[in-house]
# Entry
Amino acid sequence: MNAVRSEGITPMNRQQQPAKEAKGAIKIEKVEKVYDPTGAAVQAVDRCSLDIGAGEICMIVGPSGCGKTTLLNAIAGFHSITDGAIYLDGDMLCGPGKPQAEPGPDRVVVFQNGALFPWKTNLENVAFGPIMQGTMSKAEANEKARDLMATAGLSGTENNYPGEISSGVRRRVEIVRALMNDPKVLLLDEPFRALDSLTKSVMHEALLDIYYKNKVTIFFITHDLEEAIFLGHRVVIMTTRPCKPKKMLEVDIPHPRDYSVLTSQRFRELMEETVEAVHEEAVKAFEAGEKEM
Amino acid sequence: MSSVDETLAFDPSREQRIKLLKGAMPFEPLSDELLGKIADIATTERVAKGAVIYQVGDPAKDLFVIANGQVEHALGPGAEATVLVKVVGRGDVIGWAALLKDRSRRLAKTTALVDCQLLRISGDQLMDVLSEDPEVAQDVLSRWAKMIIEDFTVPRWLAQVKDAPGRGEDGGPQTTSHLSGAALFWYRFSKWLTSPRPYLMLIGFAAFFGSWFVLSEVIHFWRFDNLPGPREVLIEWFNPDPIYGLSIYTPEYYDHIWWSIRRILIAFAIATGLGVPVGLFLGWSKKFREYVFPIFETLRPIPVLAWVPLAIIMFLSVEGPVIFLATLASFYATALNTMLGVESIEESYPRAAACLGASKWQIFRHVVIPGALPYVFTGLQISVGVAWFSLVAAEMVSGQYGLGYVINNSYTNVRYPTIVIGMITLGVVGYISSALIRMLGDYMMQWRVRELALGGQ
Amino acid sequence: MSATAASVRSGAWSRFGHAMNNERVRRAIISVIVFVGFWEIGSRSEDLFGYRFPWIGLIPAPTDVFASFVPLIGDQGYWTSWYQSTRRVFTGFIAAQIVGIPLGLAMATSRLFYNLSFPVFEVMRPIPPLAWVPAAIIFWPTEESSIAFVTFLGAFYVVVINVLGGAKSIDVRYFQSAYSMGASGWDVFRRIILPATLPSIFIGSAVGMGITWEVVVAAEMISGGGGTSGASGGGLGFFIWNAYIGGSYPLIVVGMISIGVAGYVSSSLIRKLGETFTPWRRLR
# Structure
């Protein structure tokens, strides 16, 4: 449990500074999360520091159970932190005196197993956010929802229930539902994990497509190194539990990207640089037999 | 994908194609004009013996009409069919997965058993042609549905057949999922009739009634002698002038039924009106739960019927105790199941709602209540059964009128066949009340019915 | 299992458990006190306020109940009643298991048997067990056996339904992997169907236990107090009914609480038993 402590890692090089407006920059500062501090004291996150630029696609890669979901949950406001602070565009989300952030539409989560409400149609799901917040009337929200769904190629599924459509389509609806709220940050917790690889590759392109139109900050957790390098501006490789950044990689392949990137030489070079670090942590996690946190 | 030899001369004329299409079951009702249009978009293919036309999992763009030859059609496990391998020939249509929404991958592996000649039709183009005449299109699609159920026995794919062009609810396309409802029911029913099931069921009943009859009225075996036999009971039940005073012709019979039903309705209404909110709060609010649940759990082990004397003391009327007991039993079941329902809601749903800006009350209304609804309805079915259970006991002990009273009274007045009449009536009424609730639940939760039909989760 | 996870379990129980309990126990105690308080005041409302609360005003007060209980502790008859009821519950319950579990498993494994027997079963099920009491009394020679029969019926339905439910929900892939590894039909039954159905059997038993108590108490009240011979029988149900007829109202409540305790203890026993036999569910 005694990971090497350091004050955060300086990235290898920072060529890409994607966004123009300061919208959705996250600063994670020495965040620590210990479950059950007076009891078993399981440390999930160990003094993790990370700076994510506005509009950046930041991919978090790490073995199962390393605590990366805890980090996401802390940003989203589902978990408290025991030490450190997290800032969004300079405002403190959680930190000293306020251990848990409030969940809100500026940081919307897309969940691993999907959280589209099965009892509402796709349209009702997508329009849910603004209606709940009172920022739009039902008619306005429905209209915007239809438009957004159209741009994502989802026209025609508005009146279906989530249980009737395939999981790939469901994911897209969920992402659109998040985007309806003009969030600053999109928090994605292994959203494509349950999809087969064919659907996954289509989803990658769909996600990038959506990103190019919306430029939100994306905080994306994954196991899949390929997925990380393909999508991200930056890939952060986490250690096993307790997690902290072990290695960072700037992906200098220019956007917009398409699937031809996967076979490009630069892509393979980047894979080579990082695969060893990832594998090392994966072996450690395997031997420790960790359960997903 | 397919081994095609396009140079060889399989080139039927337009006339021939129309004729071929007309012979295929789904296309029967189409006018020659429409068939002509389909013929125009069709292309011809020749497939050599032994060649695989398509595999399970291939993307499905086209369907094929077999002009000549024989094809072996082997469904993969994902299709859940009862008959896995079929041989199809001239005039048959395969590859209908091209008409499925969103999931257009092949469900079967088709292999040519001899040299074959096929017409290949693009699924999208076919739908375009059909959409020119919506009514006919609907007809064709429901025929597809029937064919699918009958020949390929994969009913759940039904709901995914592409939208029939036509009126929908808010201007959207009308889905075939309710179109297929009636077709589905009819064909399921006819499938059921042709299976061994209903006959075995009859045999089971016959065995039961038969042995009862033989033991009590024929052989008078042991104590069965004292029991009224089925013949006796039936005669009495349908007797215009019953010996013991109660049959379907006597108004008292219906009086008693109504008394019992009335009590159940009141008890169930109160119990649900109290139980569902209490259950929801027990599940949702930790504070509420910690205060209320201990009392709840302490009182619950006390059998409802042990409350009878206390109820008689508390309620000075005659109806009071009876309704109270049924209400109590029903309340426990409803509250508990509702609470379980709330607890079983996946954590990610309220979290997602919170992310999207919903307040606590909004989450309660839009996530907790609909999410718990399936469990609530299961609980209500149990609760109605439990209400009947307690009602009968209460009526037997302290009632006047009502089916429980009938049973007890008939016993003390040595009217044995009436006992059985009472029991059977109770059974029927009890079953109907549960079924009504289940139907109400299905109606209110369309999304769940469809989800279950598609084998989701 | 890693050291961390193991320490989560044991450490969590001692520390975390205590921390939790303080708040929760306190609230529970408060609510019990409030409840008993209302009860006491309500039942004595006539004396206290000159106005009798509806319903609550008529029931015996907790203090009276307790006062009546104390002399009972030494009373032989009281504990015999306990024994009678418990005996009936367990005989009926075990009989229901012996008949119900094999029947349920048979229905689950053989399509033919299911189609033959389930419709009959389903048709009989809505008839409340207590409605069978007169028929049972007519049929069975002794009163005791008729009570036993009705008790058996009550638990029987629940057990069978739960076994069926458990068997149906076994993931078909378990079967497929077993067969692909060369298992015979009997192997599959013993090693897959039986263990997978075990949790459902126990849940069914816990619920069935509750119903059995209901039926026993009712049967005791009905046959012991409802007009036929009151001498035999006994049991806690009869105890309550007797107290009512005899006008000693506080004893009614004593009886009720006794049954509640007995019911709770027996259900817990079954649950504990279930946990021992299905250790793989412990860490859920």
Observations:
- Chain C touches chain B through 64 residues (CB under 8 Å).
